[in-house]
Amino acid sequence: MDTQASECATALRDKMLIGSEWREAQSGATIPVFDPATGKAIACVPDGSAADVDHAVETAWRAFRSPAWCAMPPAARERLLLRLADLLEANGEALALLETRNNGKLLAYSRMFEVGAGAQWLRYMAGWATKISGSTLDLSLPLPPGRRASAFTRRVPVGVVGAIIPWNFPLLMAIWKIAPALACGNAVVLKPAEETPLTALRLGELALEAGFPPGVLNVVTGRGESAGAALVAHPKVSKIAFTGSTEVGRLIGSVCGRNLKPVSLELGGKSPVIVLDDCDPAIAAQGAAEAIFFNHGQVCTAGSRLYVHQGIYDAVLSRLAEIADGMVVGSGLAAQTHMGPLVSQRHLQRVRGLIDSGIEDGAERLCGAAAVPDEGYFVRPTVFANPDRRPMTLLTEEVFGPVLVAMPFTDLADVVAQANNSVYGLGASVWTNRLDAAMNLSASLEAGTVWVNTHNMVDPNLPFGGFKDSGIGREHGAAAIDSYTTAKAVCLTYAQ
Ligand code: NAP
Ligand code: MG
């Protein structure tokens, strides 16, 4: 075994975490986990069912009510989250290798955006644990003479949170959910994506090592339609926090609606990138490439529709095609690689099918046709030009891969209308140094986040979420604290 492989094996956990126990599924069934760079199985995890979810939720419920957790002072919760951040970093290299083996992403991305950003989010949310507050209120109750009234509110944890996450940033998405949930004093049952469960399991182990009481964080592996659905429907789960596709989000939202269960949904996107004619074409092309090709396009805010002012359209597109052609596609573990494999065989087939649809719809493919490694789930970065702006599936459907459609524009009002002509509204970026255009476009674009001269930038202090079919609710910052607590009003009367 080489050094990397042995470091990776040290971090490998392949059972579910319920309380402090590592368990098989009650049915004994397992799910294979693959290395997308080779297509070979690297582990098997339990295929959890409703019975396993019930066990995990009951365990979480007991932990939520236990004095060890519910009477813990906020400063102690803060310390546990800070300790978990330290442990994440101390085990960072093994976690990053494990993530790259399981998800395929570049090792540099695993280090920076899974481990590095994960620790940053844990520390940010640790700080919130001691800053949760309610308010005192004056009342106008019709009280008899001699009596007065007063009231205060507290933000209290909701109870057991069911967290369901996708495979594109496995460790970071887990932390985006568990960090605010635990900072607020909830207990969590986390269901990672079936493709990428390995770092979430290790995160559960590190949480125990950090000193979180057993049962406060449980990790149940399994499939969405069984384990995920059971978590959503469980009566003792008080809130669902979901990141994933709009299709599944809609389904989960409808079940939560029927059960009157709060739900936050971070869903899909088809984010526009708008380049004005005052931009340096080389800088704009680099920005547009990073907006779509970062993390192999497997980013909910990926800039998959590019609108470039006619005056610099040819210059931007030719540079963009050069950048895409120059990208080395290969294993995320290799230092020279710019783009790793897609996450799974199934996703590869879907992305290939969508690329074929672009060709059938008559767009010009500027790059992306070159060969890829035989084994593993690779596609090349692909740019289509659609100067006539013909209707095409690639303009409406989320690809979740490195596939871009570019179009020219001349009129700002027209490009805003084009950009907003989508069921999605997650992210958008505007590239210009003109203050008036930046301000007016950011006001007009229907998106939860509008970036100016950058794209895909997220920060734990910045609310994140979608307009329209891109979701409900906001993660991060103060919004996350509201989302993982509920208000309790206490009303009292007293003698004057
Ligand atoms: P997905 O199929 O919607 O799955 C997401 C999670 O939901 C997985 O854990 C999945 O389990 C589970 N699930 C599936 N069906 C379920 C059901 N009936 N009940 C409960 N849970 C269920 O999404 P994906 O393909 O893994 O991820 C890609 C999508 O996520 C993209 O559309 C992307 O835009 C979106 N995304 C959004 C954000 C954001 O913040 N807005 C961030 C990242 C990704 P299985 O793994 O077993 O299917
Ligand atoms: Mg899935």
From TrEMBL:
A molecular function (GO) held by this record is:
oxidoreductase activity, acting on the aldehyde or oxo group of donors, NAD or NADP as acceptor
Aldehyde dehydrogenase domain residues: 22-490
The entry's keywords? Oxidoreductase
On whether Protein transport is a keyword of this UniProt record, the answer is no
Q: Which Pfam families match?
A: Aldedh
Question: PROSITE patterns, per this entry?
Answer: ALDEHYDE_DEHYDR_CYS, ALDEHYDE_DEHYDR_GLU
Which InterPro entries does the entry link to?
Ald_DH/histidinol_DH, Ald_DH_C, Ald_DH_CS_CYS, Ald_DH_CS_GLU, Ald_DH_N, Aldehyde_DH_dom, StyD
Question: What residues sit in the active site?
Answer: E266
Q: Which family does it belong to?
A: Belongs to the aldehyde dehydrogenase family.
| Descriptive protein name | Aldehyde dehydrogenase
What organism is this sequence from?
A: Bordetella genomosp. 12
Q: What is the lineage of its organism?
A: Bacteria, Pseudomonadati, Pseudomonadota, Betaproteobacteria, Burkholderiales
